[in-house]
Amino acid sequence: MTTTAPRDEQLWSRCAGCSSLLYRKRLRRNLDVCPECGTHVRLGAPQRLAQLVDPDSFRALPDRVVEVDPIGFVDVLPYPNRLAAARTGTGLDEAVLCGTATIAGQPAVLAVMDFRFLGGSLGCAVGELITRAAERALADRVPLVLVTASGGARMQEGALSLMQMATVSQAIGVLREAGLLTVSVLTDPTYGGVAASFATNTDLVLAETGARMGFAGPRVIRQVTGRPLPEGFQTAEFLLRHGQVDMVVPRRALRGRLAALLAAAAGAARPAPAGSAAAQVASGGTAIAAVPAPRAAGSAPAEPAGAAPDVPVRSPVDRRGPGATPDPVDAWDTVRAARHPGRPTTLDYLDSAFDGFVELHGDRLGADCPAVVGGLARLDGRPVMVIGHQKGHTTAELVARNFGMASPAGHRKALRLMRLAARLGLPVVTLVDTPGADPGVDAEEQGQAAAIAESILTMTALPTPVVAVVTGEGGSGGALALAVADRVLMLRRAVYSVISPEGCAAILWPDSPAAPRAARALRLTAPDLSRLGVVDQIVSEPDGGAQADPQGAADELRRALSANLAPLLEVPRAALVRRRRERFRRFGAAGSLAVKR
Known about the structure:
Blueprint: E1 2-3, E2 12-14, E3 21-23, H1 24-29, H2 45-52, E4 59-60, E5 63-65, H3 79-90, E6 96-103, E7 106-113, H4 124-140, E8 144-150, H5 158-177, E9 182-191, H6 192-195, E10 204-208, E11 213-214, H7 218-225, H8 236-241, E12 247-249, H9 251-268, H10 277-282, E13 317-319, H11 331-338, H12 346-352, E14 355-359, E15 372-379, E16 382-389, H13 395-400, H14 408-424, E17 428-434, H15 441-445, H16 448-460, E18 466-475, H17 476-480, E19 487-491, E20 495-497, H18 501-508, H19 515-522, H20 526-532, E21 537-539, H21 550-568, H22 573-589, E22 593-595
Parallel strand pairs: 7-8, 8-9, 9-10, 9-11, 10-12, 13-21, 16-17, 17-18, 18-19, 18-20, 19-21
Antiparallel strand pairs: 1-2, 2-3, 4-6, 5-22, 6-7, 14-15, 15-16
Helix pairs in contact: 4-5, 4-22, 5-16, 5-22, 11-19, 14-16, 18-19
């Protein structure tokens, strides 16, 4: 809707769908849906709650947001100034409202996002608030309802905002293990990191009429593909036709539909068994995977958690050997080095750092994505499952491999191999080198967001050791889909970021191309990410970079992998998953909230 006058309280609105001039009070009575054409106006979180929950039943969670500026981000404005403006303009502390309520008498915990607040972007505080909402749902043994409205992860918080995709996903995973219902309601718009995590990995996914959802936005897809988009692309009806949502619900029916679903779940709910993961979290502990854990090859039998050897969750160490090159002079130089066509690819490392690689193909659903390769190999004599993005060195190879951008079939192939590794008791090694997931029309039709979300969710509870290495580009959710690991390593000239510098510059800088400035602001280099705790170890590269001495780079990689994998093999599976979850839980909790006492 566009309004006809600048006053706060306006009498009339013009519909953005049919251009009808509408009396505002009539529009409000119709739940902000145009009575002429049915266009659903975007709602703020307070309005949404007023429409969904029983009168006077909402109780905000007792958490208060404090200032969060983890990387000191500045574009044309410092990030704290943008936060202050968003708070003034919306009257909210952050881009989500969380609390307890009843819907037609059925109790639930709700987390409702607000697109007016920096595009509903997912940052550390938002991730923390939603995670605490999930923990409250677990403690109260009630369903969790998420109402999404977001453009994606928050650029101004760098890779830490990307980590929130895993932090919230694992909280949903704990609710799944506890047998509690999770429901997401997609509203317009839901894109990027939110779409590729908690918006699509809940038990039920509802789409409000008029909602749009996807991993990549329409503008990006048009730019990448150079072709027009199909009519109705990424709309709620499109999602229903392509099997990506359970139902499309008009706003007037949404409250009743949620009430019916919550009532059905209440009838089937069971209390958490004593000693279960759910019971541990409800009593203040940390949940572990509720699946039987096979013994990894070469590891000791499972022991009580208290007897496990102490493997640090985080130990940022720079293991540069003699003759290692100094840091590139600036972040943009590092970006260019990470993209160098001569850098070793996953297949190159499989040939030089591993032995006996046997490639396995296919997602078992109808496709084999060439941008992801994986299979069985040996690392210093130890059997492992290795999965990685594959780019190429020549233009022909890059095109054939889709520049290392995985399709949904690629993510599902990777998941199939990870699950196979867990059943066989093999550790998983992932090699990350992608500018991002495939942003094409076909990928969206095949459920790109849901495929990434399922990969992230599964890796949070995979009962086998996982070590990830960013070898070149670590681009957004496409990278995280292979990097929810016990240990995350990074080659010195690699980069890992919530968005590409070019993408960030196009959104936040209005002047001439500002990608170099965006690269510096995003804190995407290995030393930056080591300081933030996202990366556990920086792996040295030979003089001139990995492309100057591929075998030397492979030797460094092999030594780093062996050193990081060996202690993980001694950790009982339950403790392993618990520690992995603790690792990602800290990315949300790091100073983002103060709890009222």
